[in-house]
Design goal:
5% of the residues lie in helices and 52% in strands. The strands form 7 sheets. A 4-stranded antiparallel beta sheet has the order 3-2-1-28, with no helix packed on it. The N terminus is likely disordered.
């Protein structure tokens, strides 16, 4: 972990009247500059609140000109908002509440209206997720259906979304059976991520417990879904698929596998909704033998690079994507903190922000779109138990 050394400054005599006036002028000038730079892209950070000092979702402003982050404050008080997503226009944000305290041993999802100028979220409503410990969610292409993965519940749920961002009770709950060779983590299904395909005709769900990526036919007008044929694609036993990321071309889907510390490339048949595994590569340097679990995965907007986070090695693995979807690891960058549970690429593809959960920090990296390389800026911003980073629209 990078530490910052304090610089030594000799004591100075007390300021006289002229020095005091000059100092006041400098302070006012600094305040003016700070206010001028305050507008920036709104950044929301989801956290764990149970057993921590966090109260919910926090807002920051990210300045894309130089990669600096300005804290705004608590955006919304809500329990365990461990994953966030937003409508493309940034008007509404949805957060899982990773709990199991609602009727039926269920967690919940909360809908918010965004106040971009103040950096605040106004609660619209909260709806049951129909399963315990929801940990991931995503919107379909129409913005009318929200898919949720319930980790402990082991299922996927689809919740209708109204024009005003209000959530309705689930229109479908998708359950599966199975287990994996890891008896501690794979004793039952553990739904961990959901994505829709580009055609909005299929829903795909990563299941850490069964080593499957499940495929469902999705009916956008009704918010219904049913098992596809074949119903799933298999990963190597004990892989533990966690999160999924599409290539911009729609030709490949990538799975980061938590238990095996690997990434698997799947070829996508858009007509049949079928995934075919192509290859699996490690996220760790050769010879590393310590404990590790991968977490987040993202593909650069230009489609040339893929990023995956390691918890244990505490790093971001960087891969070059070949013309056939093959992956070549070209670098591993330390995240300057412990347990990078999540990270996000800025919309312009020039920055990466890593959420170091156990170090309570956000680390900023400059990203070179030509080479894929990450360079730490040295900025470590305090954030209590950060576990999700979400970029929103510019603040005017």
């Amino acid at each position: 972990m990078v530490t910052r050394r304090e610089s030594f400054r000799p004591a100075r005599p007390a300021a006289g009247p002229r020095r005091a006036v000059f100092g006041l002028a400098l302070a006012l000038l600094a305040a003016t500059v700070t206010c001028a730079r305050a507008p920036g892209r709104l950044l929301l950070v989801g956290t764990y609140t149970a057993g921590t000092a966090s109260q919910g979702i926090y807002a920051f402003r990210f300045h894309e000109d130089n990669g600096t982050i300005t804290p705004v404050g608590l955006a919304a008080e809500t329990p365990n908002p461990s994953f966030l997503t937003a409508t493309p226009d940034g008007k509404y944000v949805f957060a899982v509440n990773e709990v199991a305290t609602l009727p039926g041993n269920s967690g919940s999802v909360t809908s918010f209206r965004v106040d971009p100028k103040a950096g605040r979220l106004e609660t619209i409503n909260r709806e049951t997720s129909r399963g315990a410990d929801p940990c991931h969610l995503t919107l379909d292409a129409t913005g009318r259906t929200l898919a949720v993965a319930n980790y402990a519940g082991g299922n996927f749920a689809l919740l209708p979304v109204g024009d005003n961002g209000r959530l309705a009770p689930a229109s479908a709950v998708l359950t599966n059976n199975g287990s994996g060779p890891n008896h501690e983590r794979q004793e039952a299904p553990h739904a961990h991520a959901v994505v829709f395909d580009a055609g909005n005709e299929f829903l795909l769900g990563a299941d850490l417990g069964t080593d499957h990526v499940w495929s469902y036919r999705f009916q956008a007008p009704t918010g219904a879904a049913s098992a596809n044929d074949p119903p799933a694609a298999s990963l190597p036993p004990g892989a533990g698929p966690r999160h999924l990321a599409w290539h911009p071309s729609g030709r490949w889907l990538f799975s980061v596998n938590e238990l095996a510390s690997t990434v698997t490339t799947f070829a996508w048949d858009a007509a049949m909704g079928r995934l075919t595994p192509q290859a699996t590569v490690s996220t760790l340097p050769d010879g590393f033998a310590g404990p590790n679990a991968t977490a987040e995965i993202a593909v650069h907007p230009n489609g040339r690079f893929l990023y995956a986070s390691n918890r244990g090695h505490d790093s971001i693995a960087v891969f070059r994507i070949g013309e056939t979807g093959s992956l070549q690891r070209i670098g591993i960058e330390p995240t300057r903190g412990r347990t990078p549970r999540h990270f996000a690429l800025s919309p312009d593809g020039r920055w990466l922000i890593a959420a170091n959960q156990e170090s309570n920090s956000l680390a900023v990296f400059r990203l070179d779109p030509a080479t894929g390389a990450l360079t730490a800026t040295g900025a470590l911003v305090r954030a209590e138990t950060p576990v999700c980073v979400l970029f929103l629209q510019e603040i005017l």
